[in-house]
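Hi Y.,

Following your request, here is the sequence exactly as I used it, all 207 residues.
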Amino acid sequence: MLSNLFFLCAVTGGTFLVCQFVLMIAGIGIHDFMGADSPEAEVPLSDHAGTASEVTHQHLSTHHGGWLFTMFSIRTVSAAITFFGLAGMAAAASELSPLPQLGIAIAAGGLALVCVYRLVLLVRCSGWDQTVKIQRIVGQSATVYLPIPAAGAGAGKVFVQAQNRQMEYPATTAANRVLLAGEQVIVIDFKGITLLVAPDPSLKSKT
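Below is the corresponding structure, written out as tokens. Let me know if you'd prefer a different format.
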């Protein structure tokens, strides 16, 4: 039973990783593949002076949902699933009992998730002068990726076009209803890297 689960995870996660790599090499935007860039290190440079590690720490401390929220992206989760499966298969091949197999797989998946997350932060910090300035996004249209709770009750996520890239940002709303996945919204403000969005009034006028 566990062997089948490990094999499925290794194949599924590995497929996602390969597809992301191929799309990146081909220069194709990966928004449609649910892999848009996350703004882990993308806050205005003028607002955060200091070394890359200091800026990263400052940024994470201002995130509305905390560092754990930013850690999960299609890249990190794909890596975690892949290594969960591979480590589990290796443990099963060593004829360990089910509990140690599961423990090894979970540890490997968690380690892969953290390592890929830190690698993304490192790459983003190394290219700091090319990062997206979040204030330029205010006034732009965005697409809801993860539903946004009503009246600031929590954060969802949106995709927004910025500097010829599809970017993924956490977002909240003051609207009195939930903003559903796929809905078009307008960015009206931001706090840290969390956007404040509202339903697109132009769409309402057309209905």
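The two ends are 51 Å apart (CA to CA).

Thanks again,
Q.
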